[in-house]
Structure prediction request, 251 residues.
Amino acid sequence: MTLYLIGTGLNDERDITIKGLETIKSCDEVYLENYTSLINCSISDLEKYYGKKITIVDRKFVEQTDELVNSSKTKNIALLVIGDPFGATTHIDLMLRCKKESVGFKIINNASILTAIGITGLQIYKFGKTTSIPFPDKNFRPETSYEVIKQNKILGLHTLVMLDLKPEQDKFMTVSEAINILLEIESRKHQNVFTKETFCVGVARIGSDDFVIKSGIASDLLKEDFGKQPHSLIVPGELHFVEEDALKMWK
Ligand SMILES: C[S@@+](CC[C@H](N)C(=O)[O-])C[C@H]1O[C@@H](n2cnc3c(N)ncnc32)[C@H](O)[C@@H]1O
Prediction:
């Protein structure tokens, strides 16, 4: 039997691929991990369209238990991942565990934010390392995102900054929260990497009909309302004139 890792696509129930839908319909059990991204429809919309009951699972279930791998020894199991299964770094481990246990494993790819951001006009092959901003707390104020932006800038490359989510608390980071966190890091480090004058691009709900893309300096983007999450922030590096032209569309 097989563990299928299936991308739902970015926006709603209708973004599933035909192969993904056929596989879901043939599976004995269907799970959705909702901790690496946010889909723009309800679970009951997914259940209705896919014709299957869906069980929501958290990071602990997927990464720290063997339930999925063990069940796939005797049943066909689908684990749905919002976007593309490998748009998040966490799922390679499942593949390795299946291999170790001689359990069948198949991937059904779909669209990912990693490529869909091409709609901004920034060229995908000019992005450097992707980074993410976690929700800070008293004892946890990581500066990795700032460092990644700095390194990418040195190479003239764009940075895609993914924003934290805590679905169990219904918390999804916004573009303005991300900008404020980066400005706060700048105020500690003073390296002129991300200031109020830094040109950036905020995006929301890419892949949906009501997606939002806005470009401008950080202090202006702070005042913009991007609407519902998921949001991402892009800090462009050196711009080709075609990229410059394209970004004017979103001013
Ligand atoms: C870990 S990534 C997971 C990506 C997903 N597996 C994929 O392939 O697109 C999740 C983050 O990507 C960004 N993101 C995902 N979908 C998005 C969308 N449709 N529009 C804007 N940002 C999005 C958000 O910052 C979100 O917190």
